[in-house]
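Quick entry, no commentary yet.
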Amino acid sequence: MVVKGRAHESYIGKPIKLFSEIDQVTHLDRREAMDTIAEDGYFELTFVSVGVQRVKCKIEQATFYLYIQPDFIYGITVPELDPAYKYANDAELPVNIGVIGHDSTELNALVLDFEKLFNSFFISEDDRFLSRPMMFRRADSLQKVCDIRYKTVQNDYFKAHVKYTIASINASVSRGENYLINGYILNQPILYTNEAYMDFFSSCFTGYLKEASTGKSSQSLQNIINAEADYQHLSAFFKEDKFLKRDTLRELVILHNLWQYYFEEGYNPEAIKSILSQIVTLSKLTDHQRIAHNMLSFMNKLLVGADAPSFSARAANGKMGSLQMFKGRWVYLNFFSTANAQSLREMPKIASLKKKFGDKLIFLSICLDDSVKTYLNYLRSNPKYDWPIWFSNERGLSKTAKDVYFVSGTEAYFLISQLGTLALCPAPAPSEGIEYRFNLLFKPKRKNTKTGIR
């Protein structure tokens, strides 16, 4: 995905950064691309997107959003920031970008059209107060208008955007949880990357576990979290709830609420981290494992820009190796296990990447097997893997590599800069586009000043 554009002359020489949210539960930003706006106002941002999503771009405080799809090329114009805005407290100040060459079926055009339609229903020129019954009627009327207006639209992301934006209006005026959850959540797919769906989900389930546990005399929610720190018990505690009988939905509600409770008094942060670690290990859903891992990374201060934790581990020759050995070099660090089939499928891809980038960065793999025997057997079976592959669980270590990187499962990826800081945490696996990141880092970029879309 490429965003090419021209910015107003007031932005010349300033960096423009593109961010994605690592998930729609934590809403933590991850910088995906950056460029410096040239003297002619031109810039170009490129990154790998595995699906449709909304991204945020910033030029200092000036901020705008763009809906992007994989393999598209977008051309945009960025106008001058409204001088009426006050530049205080590093607040994000919105600018309304133009999208070049788009047609009425393009996602950004559809979203803009819907926003205008939405505002015509709910924002009056005279600021007249809308009562709850009036809000209900207008939400229903808007849905009917949209059904007709967008009946030929095939974009599933946009259709969900409309549906759940209207649902959020109903939630904001308390239309009733039976109406909302039965109508929009139960027996519907979970749309993890659609911000309208996840905003509606949040409005329905923020604080839900506390309410659902009220009146249960056997045990309190706080006791299960703080004293037991047992995910399976916590999940079983809510299994009979009328809305949480489905395992997938119940687990996502638990994740959402644990993130909330981590910042509240009365809940033990270490207990919450323990439960999240169990979800990483026990969950059958990759999306939930990823969300839990993102939470743990934040809670354990494994943030982009922080110092990469150092560690020691056993090398193939039996000697101890240390991350400090690679000081001053970029390092692509991965954790794997011979019992984890997916992590093993990534190893040949790492071998291929090493052929291309081995002179630019160090590839370092950490085996998380319990047995040194299975680790050594794996090395003997794969003699062509010629980068450092170390064993984490060596006896005598007070903290292993797995411990200091808070790896809860048996697969994880990190990119460490030559300055010894975390550049990507977590980093994409080889199959998820890390090669693109390497190309950005180690290959010169040639600019094409032609802007457009698709």
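second:
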Amino acid sequence: MSGNTFGTLFCVTNFGESHGPAIGCVIDGCPPGMLLSEADIQADLDRRRPGTSRHVTQRNEPDAVEILSGVYEGRTTGTPIALLIRNTDQRSKDYGDILRTFRPGHADYTYWHKYGLRDPRGGGRSSARMTAPTVAAGAVAKKWLAEKFGTQFRACMTQLGELDIPFESWGHVPHNPFFAPVADVQRYEDYMDLLRKAHDSCGARIRVQATGVPVGLGEPLFDKLDADIAYAMMGLNAVKGVEIGAGFASVAQRGTVHGDSLSPEGFRANNAGGVLGGISTGQDIEVSIAIKPTSSILSPRETIDIHGQSTEVVTKGRHDPCVGIRAAPIAEALLALVLMDHALRHRAQCGDVVQAVPPIPATRP
């Protein structure tokens, strides 16, 4: 494989380019018999879709998904599920000026040296547009996990650039363009308006959570659940950091605090983020990711061309001033893909394990 397939038993192969005729994925390993329609997938794609507010790229893509195979009479057959999303609003002329130059912070330089050529239109394979098939595949995994275990996924933005976003309620997240857990987002609206006028970009921090996760998912050494979560999240465009549970804050914690005490009523805390020894505890999976500023900006930047000569580049086109704004549903999808794969692996190896004592509650009442 060449880095385009994710998973062991629930395998997702992603294909396409930002300005090609279509993008999509093939899911191999989905269990048979689950009711599945385009509507089950479209809701998450609509949450990630471009053009939904003035703070994201104005590329107008409907991101309408088509199921080409793997479903018969509304149910999954156990054979590969092919999902297709057609590109309808490409504007490739915007990228003519960067054909022979490299955008700072972008994959142009590395793609050119690795492959000897590159597709400059919208970033080709390195475009954030390639996250749409991931969201589509994640929706399939979410549906199976919800029906099997009651697992649910949610994500929110906790920092926009240098602005912290305090947590008020998950209920606010669907009602603003930032996926922010606060009622009033005017401060963040104003921040983005100033950023756009300055022809600049910023990063973001995203929190993603899975609830209703069964105990026992993950492996004891090389395929630890938290290791695979980190691996998946680092595969998301522009991610530069991943934390599980307390993350880097655990450096300043004492062992008497960090270790989550257990009682018959449940765990007393969740500094571990729902994973111990690489295996899920049954607590909420808690993940936080750091997303860098968008590389494609209108401000002139110093660079070189393909001949190694010094030059300047200005990136035209329609870009997200902060790619983190649309990252919440993508992070949910990636977490769902990891848990789905490990759920199938656990069922294959340990499906007949009988527990003499049932698991304690995930959290203490």
